[in-house]
Amino acid sequence: MNMKKILYLMLGATLFLLASCQKISLAVMSDGSYNNTKLFSGTYNMLPYDGPFWPADTVKGVVLGKETQQDFTVTPYLQVLNFNATLSDTLLTLTCTVRAPKIAGLPNFYEVKGFLSLTTFCGNANYINIAAYNDLRKQIKKAWTAEVPSGDSKNYTLGPYKLKRHYTYYVRIGANVDALSRRNNYSEILKVVVP
Known about the structure:
Helix content is 4%, strand content 45%. It is mainly beta. The protein folds into two domains: 59 residues, no CATH class; 115 residues, Immunoglobulin-like, CATH 2.60.40.2060.
């Protein structure tokens, strides 16, 4: 039987290899880089898969050796721009602009959510998961054109979040669409020091 080796890449999550009818999971760093010692040298087809981006083409015939670099260019579903965090006493307000680089065929716009963490790792896998913060997200759950009838972007304000004095927080905003596993497109992370 002639089996093709296909490598699936989920940015920020898992790297999948499909060869000989087996799927092997490999870790991928949050910046999209991966270091892998589980694959044998050989020729593979690679495909970015299940990330917060439009489906990409398979890169065919990638020869994996001792050291191989394969970069992917993808188009994000959403962009979180102009992110700002404003602290007034112990109340934090987050603002941003969410932009859709491509509107035609965009899955339903699902939500815009603030992520607060006590470490520099901040996002869906590492945040302060309490109802008081989670309830401040904006659940959209509709087509982009229903939420943003004219244009490719919209401003959002989240908060205020009640913070504790003398703590340092790391904050960002994530926005996602209702596609596969609803992964977020993120803003940069900002550091907020509460006096």
